[in-house]
Amino acid sequence: MVLSMNRFVGKVAVVTGASSGIGAAIVEKLVENGLIVAGVARRAEIIEECAKKYAGKKGKLVAVKADMSKEDDILRAFKWIEGNLGPIHVLVNNAGYATMGGLTDGKTEEWRKTLDLNIISLCVATREAVRLMRANKVNGHIIHINSIFGHQVTTHTWNIYPASKYAVTALTETLRQELNALGCKIKITSVSPGLVATEMTTKNKNASADTKAFLAKLPILQPEDIADGICYALSTPEHVQVHELTIQPL
Questions:
Q1: Which of 40, 94, 145, 200 sits most deeply, having the most CB atoms within 10 A of its CB?
Q2: pLDDT in tens, 98-136
Q3: Is the pLDDT assigned to residue 204 strictly greater than 80?
Q4: Separation between Cα atoms, residue 175 and residue 221, nearest integer Å
Q5: What distance in Å separates the CA atoms of residue 25 and residue 203, rounded to the nearest whole number?
Q6: Residue 231: CB partners within 8 Å, gap ≥ 6?
Q7: Can you tell me the distance from the alpha carbon of 79 to that of 67, in angstroms, rounded to the nearest whole number?
């Protein structure tokens, strides 16, 4: 098997939650590999600054301001991307949310926010990307950023977050079957990282001292490790589908 991202050079990739952490690392890797990347996030100004830094790289980064918890924002973003950048070839559903805490004393609004971002917004973005890929006859690639918690619950401290990621696991397989039934050649990959150093984990300013101390003792991945995994999945030949990719720290 020959690994190459050449078929995506000059093509459009959409990355949600692109302003920090895993999303920012993915954006940088894709730009380095020659893709035109639409970085979607509420904090578009951060992405605009990154775009200036990447000006000399093989690809290009464009900031797209959108709140992924709002369907109207998502629809506007995809319409703008298609009209201004061209047909979408890659979608990375990275936007997500999590808070630590229990189910017995949790806040309903936090649960709703987790489900809206981790499940509903992922489905809306996927629907729009597949619609545009099919309309433009693109054999594209959809990537869901999942979690090891989407396969096994190893702690009670993340309340509704594992349930939301179990849903992503199911949605990946459901979409794979649906695309096959439609006769589409669009790939779907679920990427499930272990603990990653991001604003939701070790860089979370709102985390308690006990939580920070607990996380500091665990083996941890860097956002760039996940970005490398995504580049691997995108590099596989068109007839090869990496359905599930788990990335764990040693």
A1: 40
A2: 988 899 999 999 999 999 999 999 999 999 999 999 999
A3: no
A4: 28
A5: 15
A6: 5, 29, 30, 33
A7: 15
Mapped to the 3 state alphabet, what secondary structure does 91-137 carry? EEECCCCCCCECCCCCCHHHHHHHHHHHHHHHHHHHHHHHHHHHHCC
The question of whether 161 is a catalytic residue gets the answer yes
Average pLDDT value for residue range 156-166: 95
pLDDT in tens, 29-64: 999 999 999 999 999 999 999 999 999 999 999 999
Taking alpha carbons only, the member of 2, 1, 47, 8 closest to residue 143 is: 8
Indicate yes or no: pTM above 0.85: yes
> In the numeric block, which tokens belong to residue 53?
């830094």
59-90: burial string, b at 16+ Cβ within 10 Å, e else: bbbbbbbbbbbeeebbeebbebbbeebeebbb
Residue 243: alpha-carbon gap to chain centroid: 15
* CA gap 190, 115 in Å, rounded: 18
Contacts of 193 (CB under 8 A, 6+ apart): 22, 145, 146, 147, 148, 221, 225, 226, 229, 246, 247, 248
